[in-house]
Design brief:
This is Secreted protein. Pfam families: DUF5719. Helices cover about 5% and strands about 50% of the residues. By secondary structure, it is mainly β. The strands form 11 sheets. Strands 10, 12, 13, 14 and 16 form a 5-stranded antiparallel beta sheet that branches. Strands 19, 21, 22, 23 and 25 form a 5-stranded antiparallel beta sheet that branches. The protein has a 4-stranded antiparallel beta sheet with strand order 6-4-8-9, with no helix packed on it. It is globular and about 55 Å long. The chain starts with 6 loop residues before the first helix and ends in a 7-residue tail after the last strand.
């Protein structure tokens, strides 16, 4: 997802104010004595996140965990807070009224508004919040200054019974304009919602497109959906089409404005979870962190291209890349959703699915539906194709015994540093370094803060080697049901490359 930084804009504006012109330095021509200067990596200065409304169940218990890693070069200022979307809207309206009033009568929106759900006090230490029941709203948050780089919020909900019972988790997402969700469904046993949350002061207009096994599904009501300012709209997929489809790909395209989007996939029999957006369409994909005790794994893939895609299917196991018997390749027809049941593909070992083109590269999106347990004690989670860890990835809401960190190096070996933060109620940070062999997946035992009290966050930072993909699994045993939820670990986009700018005073002499 795209996160906006004001670093380059602010720097260029300040320079222009002094000199009247800002010139970006170009690399020196070949043969010169001066080496080209690399772009500087600077912390982002502002981050926005939205969290979907967690559940409509009266039995829902939801926890929120906010964490910002300590980042060099951020200064000492800034703040972060997470508020209900409706309160954000009310505050904005009240502030507008106050600006047109000559005196303060003590009835401003700021005085009326409820307290933020979360207000972090310092980077490097998680802060938590809770809600109960089915009335918890969507949340909108902003972090700036030292709280902005890598700001991460985890929303985790436990539902004791009913449709979608089990553990549901989602990383609150940055607003964007384009999302792909392979793995959704309008089957009779499924109740799937697309949650659209608008953090901005103006309305967003959204189109929702559905693609099944035979191509696009007709839907007149999926076009031009208006999401009001600072509000959230849950859209039930079965209201967009009359067709019952077991495997769907949902495309959310924002015509104007921006939204955060996630699919809440709830099953009457085998629990449910949040389905996060797949990585952008690509010829090669990695789906990291399949639990080693998975009893059923289904791959759902889609290509938006006109051409078909032929993909080689391999499992990155602890010992290397292997080809699942009977599932060496998968053929994905252009504009159609393809599903392949891989069974218990991990066979008791950690694993990640690696998809690569057999011949020419065609962009694809993909996700896995993963089931743990047997009989009436089954639970479901989803793993979308992930983006690499990059510079740093951050995972909030971990505990000493219920968290599993899975790391994959699909092409070349890599060394990573994993840091456990201080606990939300106490503890000291601890770091540990791991080496992941080429083509393998390792379920590593993450470090635990010394004297841990409460929950803690993990940061993953590559030290050397090739690209690394990661996922974190939270697990809980609920009356014999192996409840779980999996979140991938993409780059937290706490840093941004800023080209070096030099003064060009010659413009003043013209």
């Amino acid at each position: 997802m795209n996160r906006t930084t004001l670093s380059l804009i602010a720097g260029t504006t300040a320079l222009a104010a002094v000199t009247g012109f800002a010139a970006l330095s170009a690399p020196d021509a070949p043969g010169t004595d001066t080496a080209a200067k690399a772009a500087a990596q600077l912390p982002v200065e502002r981050t926005s996140l939205v969290c979907p409304a967690p559940s409509t169940s009266d039995l829902a218990e939801t926890s929120y965990t906010s964490f910002t890693p300590v980042t060099k070069g951020t200064g000492s200022g800034g703040k972060a807070e997470l508020r209900a979307a409706a309160e954000e809207s009310a505050d904005a309206a009240a502030e507008g009224e106050d600006e047109g009033t000559a005196k303060d009568d003590g009835k401003s929106g700021k005085d009326k508004s409820a307290q933020p759900v979360l207000t972090p006090k310092e980077p490097g230490k998680p802060v938590t919040g809770e809600s109960s029941g089915g009335d918890a709203p969507a949340l909108v948050g902003t972090a700036d200054g030292r709280f902005a780089p890598g700001w991460t919020v985890q929303e985790t909900t436990e539902v004791a019974a009913g449709t979608g019972r089990g553990l549901q988790g989602v990383n609150c997402m940055a607003p964007d304009t384009d999302f792909w969700f392979p793995g959704a469904s309008t089957d009779a046993d499924r109740t799937d919602y697309v949650h659209l949350t608008n953090p901005d002061d103006s309305a967003a207009v959204v189109d929702i497109e559905l693609y099944g096994k035979d191509g696009a599904l007709k839907s007149a009501v999926g076009e031009g959906i208006t999401v009001g300012p600072h509000s959230s709209e849950p859209v039930l997929l079965s209201t967009l089409t009359d067709e019952r489809q077991t495997n769907l790909t949902v495309h959310v395209n924002v015509r104007s404005g921006r939204v955060g989007a996630a699919v809440q996939a709830l099953d009457d029999k085998i629990g449910g979870d949040w389905l996060a957006a797949s990585a952008d369409p690509s010829g090669s994909l990695v789906l990291p962190g399949i639990p080693k005790d998975a009893t059923a794994v289904r791959l759902v893939a889609f290509t938006p291209a006109d051409a078909d895609a032929d993909l080689k299917v391999r499992l990155a196991s602890p010992s290397g890349l292997i080809t699942p018997a009977g599932h060496e390749t998968v053929h994905v027809k252009g504009g159609m959703t393809t599903a392949v049941d891989l069974g218990d593909v991990t066979r008791g070992e950690a694993g990640s699915l690696v998809l690569t083109p057999t011949d020419r590269s065609v962009p694809v999106v993909a996700a896995l539906r993963v089931v743990r347990g047997k009989g009436d004690k089954q639970e479901t989670a989803f793993i979308p194709a992930g983006r690499p860890v990059g510079t740093r990835a951050t995972s909030a809401d971990n505990s000493g015994k219920d968290s599993t960190l899975s790391l994959t190096a699909p092409r070349t070996a890599a060394t990573v540093k994993v840091t456990a933060s201080a606990g939300s109620e106490g503890g000291t940070p601890v770091s540990k370094t791991y080496t992941i062999k080429a083509g393998t997946t390792q379920d590593v035992e993450p470090p635990v803060p010394g004297g841990l009290k409460g929950t803690y966050a993990l940061t993953v930072e590559p030290v050397s080697g090739g690209p690394v993909y990661g996922a974190r699994t939270l697990a809980a045993n609920e009356d014999g049901v192996p409840a779980f939820t999996v979140q991938t670990l993409p780059d937290d986009r706490g840093m941004v490359a800023v080209p070096e700018a030099d003064e060009d005073l010659s413009v003043l002499q013209r």
